[in-house]
C-alpha cells in the first residue's frame, strides 16, 4: 500500500489530480449500486403466515420456518426479528390480506344482507380451500392466548376490533338507507357476525360439513332481518 501511494506521488500534479477524481467517482458509483435482495421478503412472510396458521404459534419451531421459508435462522432474524416478532408481522399480513379480502364481500354486494351472507360464505370457502390451511389464524391464535405475551394479545384484540368496526360501519350505512331497522344495535349485530365468522371456522375445523355451515350462515342472516 505504501509503495502504491509513493508511486502516485511521483506523478506530475495534473496527473495526480485526474487519478484522485477518478478514484472519487469510482467510490460514488459503487455506493450508488443498489443492494440486490437475496429473497422476496413479502413472499417469505406469506409462507411464514401459512406455517403459523397451520401449526399455531407454539407448534411452530424455527426449524419449521427455516425449511418452509428456505432461509437460514440468521436471515430470518435479520429480516423479521425473532419468532415472536415474525409471528406478529404475519398477524398484520393476515389482517390485510385475508380479512381485507373477506370484508370486500360486503363492499361489493348490492345490499348489506347480501354482503353479510357473502362474507360468511367466503369464510366457509376459505376453510375448505386447498390454497390455505384450515380454520382462521386469528381465531386459532386467540384460543392459544395463554402462549402469547401482552404485545401479541393486544395485536389480536385490535385485529378483532378492527374487523368488528368495519362491519359495523357498513351496517350503519345500511341503516341510513333504510335497509336495516334503525332500532337495531349496530355494534351488537357486528359482534354477532364476527363471532359467527370465528364459530363457523371452529366448527369447520371440528369436521362439520360444508352444507350444514352454509345453512347456519343463511339462518343467521335471516335472523338479522327480523
Automatic annotation (TrEMBL):
Q: Looking at the keywords, is DNA-binding present?
A: yes
- Molecular function terms from GO: DNA binding
Does the record's keyword annotation contain Zinc-finger? no
Q: Which UniProt keywords apply?
A: DNA-binding, Transcription, Transcription regulation
Q: Where does the HTH tetR-type domain start and stop, copy by copy?
A: 38-98
Concerning PANTHER family, the annotation shows: HTH-TYPE TRANSCRIPTIONAL REGULATOR YJDC, TRANSCRIPTIONAL REGULATORY PROTEIN
Q: What is this protein called?
A: Transcriptional regulator, AcrR family
Q: Specify the taxonomic lineage.
A: unclassified sequences, metagenomes, ecological metagenomes
